[in-house]
Design brief:
mainly alpha; three-stranded antiparallel β-sheet; 15 helices; two-stranded antiparallel ribbon
Length: 355
């Protein structure tokens, strides 16, 4: 508020009182990175989801700055642009963003692209409610239709081949845990050593919505965990190979080794790189940079599908998957390739005559 000076006398010689003029305060010129962190904490995003939200919003940071987001190996070590969140209101951005989003959709699978767009819109809506921005540059960008993938559940021989890969102890342990527990990758990455109950073969996780729940594993994971943990008693379970960089949140640093919690993005890259030949058995090892490998989510999908094939009851599938609705189990109720193959072979009349 500013005070205008007195310039004249009122009628009868009385002094006129100064007049107040309200000057609107401008929104804080927060950087995009700061706005992202304010959103993750202010909107009450669960810790298990915040890591994924941060990755996706960082990716969209390039596009909201009018630049294409790096993909593949170029993503590692790439520093996102620095710009004020108010720049999202640039009237020229919607047209540029639509082109960048379309180009990204051509390179990525529809599920990933749609989830990124959904998270970006949630953040933009929250920033609008704070008065930091006015418009939504994603208006007009449509979600991509994702045709149903009938091959998400890995066959039993593919799972067996995965266990035979020559990979580090960290990867062996995590992949076994993901398959045996049917847990989500981001939930497992948030596990700390103190969250584990090895004698009961279970661990305490923070699931969607911040709910504390249990995951259970089998002997394969139980045999590997002691070697992975070694003598550590606290801190992140799955660690990077290097010391944590300066500025890493304390909760994501092992107090005994100084190494950081493994990120979802790096975790997904490692799995995808190691499974390219398994996913593309006809590909040449000399030309394996182009084909895509598997995603971590396929381990959860495979575990629940195999459970359903083995006759696991609906209540137990709900408990294992930690879904709230029976309808969510429909994606796992479809028998996998091995189950269908056995069904056809068992009803082969020629095969029955031979036996």
């Amino acid at each position: 508020m500013t005070i205008e000076p007195v310039t004249e006398l009122g009628g009868g010689g009385a002094l006129r009182l100064p007049r107040a003029r309200v000057v609107p305060l401008s929104a804080p010129r927060a950087s995009y990175d700061t706005a992202v962190e304010r959103y993750l904490t202010g909107a009450g995003i669960a810790k298990s989801s915040a890591r994924i939200y941060r990755i996706f919003l960082t990716t969209w940071g390039w596009m909201l700055a009018g630049e294409p987001a790096p993909t593949g190996p170029a993503r590692r070590g790439a520093k996102p642009p620095v710009f004020p969140v108010a720049a999202i209101d640039d009237p020229a951005l919607p047209e540029v963003l639509a082109e960048l989003a379309a180009a990204r959709a051509d390179e990525m699978d529809a599920d990933t692209v749609n989830r990124e767009l959904s998270i970006a819109r949630k953040a933009i809506g929250w920033w609008q409610r704070q008065g930091w921005i006015e418009g939504d540059p994603t208006v007009g960008i449509e979600q991509r239709s994702a045709p149903p993938d009938r091959t998400k559940a890995l066959a039993e021989n593919q799972i067996a081949a995965l266990w035979r890969l020559d990979v580090a102890l960290r990867e062996k342990t995590q992949w076994k845990m993901l398959y045996e527990s049917a847990a989500r990758a981001d939930e497992v990455l948030c596990l700390n050593v103190e969250d584990l109950y090895p004698q009961d073969k279970r661990g305490r996780i923070t699931a969607k919505g911040g709910v504390t729940e249990w995951i259970h594993w089998q002997s394969g994971t139980a045999q590997l965990l002691p070697r992975l943990i070694a003598r550590r008693t606290r801190g992140p379970l799955f660690l990077t190979d290097r010391k944590a960089p300066a500025g890493t949140p304390t909760l994501d640093v092992c107090p005994e080794t100084g190494r950081a919690r493994l990120s979802y993005r790096r975790d997904e890259e490692i799995f995808e790189e190691n499974t390219r030949l398994l996913a593309n058995p006809r590909a040449s090892p000399d030309d394996i940079e182009d084909p895509d490998g598997w995603t971590l989510h396929r381990l959860r999908h495979s575990a629940l599908t195999h459970d359903a094939e083995d006759g696991t009851s609906t209540p137990m599938l709900l408990a294992r998957s930690r879904h709230a609705s029976v309808r969510c189990l429909e994606r796992y109720a479809r028998p996998g390739v091995d189950s269908v193959a056995r069904h056809v072979a068992e009803r082969d009349p020629a095969a029955r005559r031979r036996t």
